[in-house]
Each structure stands twice: as C-alpha cells, then as structure tokens.
Amino acid sequence: MPNPEDRGAVGVTRNGLDTMAERLARHLAGRSSRRSALARLGGWAAAIPAFPLLPVWRRDARAAAPAAPSPFAAKAQAKDDTKCDYWRYCAIDGNLCTTCGGGVHSCPPGTHPSPTSWIGTCFNPQDRRAYLIAYRDCCGQDACNEQNCLGTDGDLPTYRPQANNDIIWCFGTGSLLYNCSTAVIVGTAE
C-alpha cells in the first residue's frame, strides 16, 4: 500500500524521481536568490554568442577549403618562376629577378638586396597551402625591364607600408636605383 505522505495535492502517487526533483528544487531555492539566478542566466546569455569565436581545430573545414582563395591563386602555376603567374608572385610589383640574372631568392650580380621588404600571403597550388612571402628589392643598377609583374593580393595602402608593393624599398642600400624584386618564402601562413 502506498505511503499517504507520498500523495500529491490531487491524490496522485509520486515516484522517487519526483520526490528527488522536489528536494533538489527546495534545496536550491533555500540557498540562492532570484537575483543570483538571473545574473547567472544573463551571464550565460551573454557568453553563448562568443562560442563560435573560440579556436577550434577544424580538420574537416580545412579539407573543404576552396582551392583558390583569390583570383590570382585561381590561375597561378608552380612550374615556371619566370612568368608573372608563378604562385609566389601574388603580391609582387616590379621586375622579376629570375629574368634579370638572379633567382627567386637571390639578386642578380652587381645588385644588393634591400634591408627591408614587404610581405604577402600566397597560395601554392601544388601543396594547397598558403605561405608568407617576403618581397625584397635588388638595388644598385637600372631596372632590367625584362618581365614587369603586378600582383595585388593583400596589397595595402601606403600608410601600411609592410604590405604595400608600390614603394621602392632600396633605402638603406648604397644606391636608390631599382633593378628587380625577389620572392622569398618566410614560412607557412597557417
């Protein structure tokens, strides 16, 4: 026979779960106020929209990343570094040292690399990774004018000189004569 104390106001028998829930609710009500409950609820309501901003490892999102993050990257190639569409030249502005007697990362004989450079982030279509590229002007001789390229990925206005490709970066060398530009990989952009 059921215990008469376990009957509710309507005469329905309560099970153990109802009794435990009632005790927990009474315990919480006796230990907290409405203001503290509303403060906690408000804190959670303010914090929940920030959850998508937390750093989360998204392996699947990286695999589904677009193959070409910019118009330049969509047509970039990784075989011929003497062409303007070579992947490292996404933010270059000037003559290519590869066509002036130098290399992708070396100045032609008789010129000197500038001590400063501007940077860009270029997408390599072979390994589908983005790399930080330091563009350094080679100075000391007149421009060779063999292959003049203009890449504008990530180009910023002159008041942000670290990513502006319109500045002749030959200051700090013995001569302000511009010859060509190199494109050195500094590291990965990921």
From TrEMBL:
Domain of life, source organism: Bacteria
Cellular compartment(s): Periplasm
Catalytic activity: 2 oxidized [amicyanin] + methylamine + H2O = 2 reduced [amicyanin] + formaldehyde + NH4(+) + 2 H(+)
Keyword Nucleus included in the entry's annotation: no
Active site: 118 (tryptophylquinone 6'-substrate hemiaminal intermediate), 137 (proton acceptor)
Pfam families: Me-amine-dh_L (PF02975)
Domain Methylamine/Aralkylamine dehydrogenase light chain C-terminal: 77-187
E.C. number(s) listed in UniProt: 1.4.9.1
InterPro entries named among the record's database cross-references: Amine_DH_Ltc, MADH/AADH_L_sf, MADH/AADH_Ltc_C_dom, MeN_DH_Ltc
Pathway(s): One-carbon metabolism; methylamine degradation; formaldehyde from methylamine: step 1/1
Keywords from the named record: Disulfide bond, Electron transport, Oxidoreductase, Periplasm, Signal, Transport, TTQ
One Gene Ontology cellular component annotation held by this UniProt entry: outer membrane-bounded periplasmic space
Residues annotated for substrate binding in this entry: 93, 165-167
EC category name: oxidoreductase
Cross-link (Tryptophan tryptophylquinone (Trp-Trp)) at residue(s): 118-169
UniProt similarity note: Belongs to the aromatic amine dehydrogenase light chain family.
Record text on subunit structure and interactions: Heterotetramer of two light and two heavy chains.
Protein name: Methylamine dehydrogenase (amicyanin)
